[in-house]
Sequence to fold (397 residues):
Amino acid sequence: MSTSRGDVVRAAMLGLLGTRGPTSRADIARALGVSPATVTQTTKELLARDLVLELASVPSQGGRPARLLGLVDDAAGAIGIKVTADHVRLVSVGLDGAVRTDRSVDYDAFRPHALDALTDVLAEAVAGHVGPLLGIGVGLPGAVDGQASGVVDAPTLGWDRVPVGPTLRAALELPVLVDNDVNTLAAAETLYGTGRDHEDFLVVTIGRGVGLGIVTRGVVSRGAHGGAGEFGHTPVAPDGPLCGCGNHGCLEGFVGESGLLAAARERRVLTAGGTVADLARAAHDGDAAARSVYADAGTLLGRALAGAVHLLDPEVVVVLGEGIGEWTFWESAFEEALRRHLMPTRRGVPVRIEPWSEDRWAVGAASLVLATPFDAVSTGREGELVRARLQTAAVSR
Fold:
């Protein structure tokens, strides 16, 4: 199935309006790198199909005021699912990234026929989706050979070369894009967050593990085999604890959830059955040893991140994830270690700490679909199918 230049521009305009909100024709032309005449002609088509509408005028620099274009709310949507070992989180979102539905479902990734169970969950979500559905995005903690292929290696799920993408596509008859869960957050940032103002940035996640999403020139970098960004497996101590990857002394073994718990037990903040919630409670109650657990983790994270900044030279670093709730106990040590280990020319790199909710993982997965108008390379044929469905939705209105 081929897609014409006009189809690509229409899809990109709809994606732009969905992710950036009301925008003038001139700003659309600049953002997409097309001529004003192309935008004018495409706008006429989209207005005629009731996909966009004209909104209020805004002052312009000379000449008459510019009319803003906005997206019709129900133009199209996507489903995103985040897979973990014991549950999945699903959302249905519009082109603007707004969550329409959100639910969590118990799931056992280690059971026989786990992929069939995942298919059933998604089939139910597809059946309940209202309006044109562009496709499904899947995010999970593992290496994915390519978004458009979707073969997964995920040790934490017990999955080895599992054909997630091909299986879901065959069963659901929809475009399906699959990627590492941290990469999905980076994709969401390019559409709705930091990427709207920066093209080169890092997304660091802290929680059960430690992840890194790398965005270069506005596109998520995935590496030769889909495994770029395994920041948590940076070796930091030769005699450190055994990591799930099979090596000793990985960053994740100290800074991830298991590392924090091990340090807390060693310092007698927690007993054997203690949880991260118990550790956080002790820190909030003023326990010095509990706070030192977070401070030491912050120091190690800051030092390791300095190396990543030197290597990749981002404009900004975004930090988020389940562990952000206790960031106040990480922050001082993290900042001191990061700035101290950066070269003078890099010490000013901004670090943005973003609020967290678990549905962001699933919204990130949906963003794989919504980003296809801007990334025709990574998404391959599946992206082409998404754009074709967007055109079909436009024609049918």
Observations:
- The longest strand covers residues 87-94.
